[in-house]
Amino acid sequence: DWGIALSPVIEPGAEVFDLDLAGVDLANMNLQEIHFERVSLARTIFNGSDLEGAVFIDCDLSGARFKSANLRDARIQRGRLHGTRFDKAIVTGVTAEDVDVSGAYFPGIRQ
User: Fold this and answer.
1) Which pLDDT tens digit goes with each residue over 54-110?
2) Burial class of residue 8 (count of CB atoms within 10 Å of its CB; 0-12, 13-18, 19+)
3) How many other C-beta atoms are found inside a 10 Å radius of the C-beta of residue 71?
4) Closest to 22 measured CA to CA, from 50, 46, 55, 57
5) Pick from 5, 44, 59, 84: CA 20 to 30 A from residue 76's CA?
6) pTM listed for this prediction
7) 3-state secondary structure of 5
């Protein structure tokens, strides 16, 4: 059960390194200030999650879903966002450096 296995790892302020979390459902979670580094998050569901101040470094977010997620002040470095969806996400203060956004969707994003 992913929920039990990840509960001590995936929480606000956690530092998560070198994991494959591709396709995991992390919807509607409080993930403020979480730090992901070298983590595969391809096709991961973050719909409705609070990711304020989150950090993504060297992460594959291809095909991930951030519908109505709060990404305020999040930072993405050296990431892949191919096919990632940000429908109605809050993106105020997001910084992105060396990020591949080809094929990403940003319909209805909110400031």
Assistant:
1) 999 999 999 999 999 999 999 999 999 999 999 999 999 999 999 998 889 888 877
2) exposed
3) 25
4) 46
5) 5
6) 0.89
7) helix
